[in-house]
Amino acid sequence: MIDWDKQPVHSCAFYLFIMMMSCTSSAQKIEDSRFVIHVVDLETQTLKFYHQNDTGTNFGNFKNLRHSLLNKDEELVFAMNGGMYLKDGSPQGLFIENGLKIKELDTTNEAYGNFYLQPNGIFYLTKENTGVVCKTNEFKMNTNIVYATQSGPMLVIDGEIHPTFVKDSENLNIRNGIGVLPDGKLLFAMSKDSITLYDFADFFKSHACINALYLDGFVSRTYLPKKNWEQLDGNFGVIIGETKILD
Can you point out the beta strands (E) in the chain? Predict the structure, then answer.
């Protein structure tokens, strides 16, 4: 702790400057015209994972989810498809909803597709309103986890871009993903146009995300009315959604 009474005037001014810069930096909005961007503070915003309605039918898209939530006096503020899925619409890999394990962890190391490009990873939320992205082989199941989804590949690993990504790759696609910012807030992003995995990962790294996870590719959709982005079509698996109670 700084003892302000014992600091010279110029030293106090310096510390005040540093504190002001820190506050300004943490409050600064993340903007990049290439992406639809949404930041979630789990301490003040409500984020959940959705898959099926009360009758056991997949929501499939944000239009169906929004309608279901309105019937419960909830408003859908933001939504993004939350990981890859199988032909029947079931999650590919681990899925935990409201503390219940719906789908087991997929520990396959060698198979076709982005999901299996090692290392892949897990994005999960805890009862303490903490969001975590980690490699699959570092994931430890416990009763503190409320929601979890598995996908792959990892985009950023311990502060570094996935080593297999090629900067000038010809593999271009729409992409969406999730990273954890240094202050613990969650950074969601979806590219508006096709982009390489390297450039997508570099976006998260440039904002100091220690770990970031790829969620999906060309099927990716985002619902974010406050930024005039409302993609209500599609038919996918897990949905990550922010909601608020209607007045």
Answer: 35-40, 46-50, 74-81, 95-97, 100-103, 121-126, 131-135, 145-151, 154-157, 160-161, 176-180, 186-191, 212-216, 222-224, 229-230, 239-245
CB 237 within 8 A of CB 64: no
- 60 with 52: CB under 8 angstroms? no
Name the residue ranges covered by the structural domains of the chain.
34-245
Q: Please tell me whether the overall predicted TM-score, pTM, comes out greater than 0.85 for this model.
A: yes
- Segments of the chain with pLDDT less than 50: 1-27
Mark residue 56 as left, alpha or beta (left: phi above 0; alpha: psi -120 to 50; beta: remaining). left
Helix (H) or strand (E) holding 15: helix 9-27
**Structure-block tokens of residue 200:** 């997508």
Closest among 99, 86, 201, 94 to 155, alpha carbons compared: 201
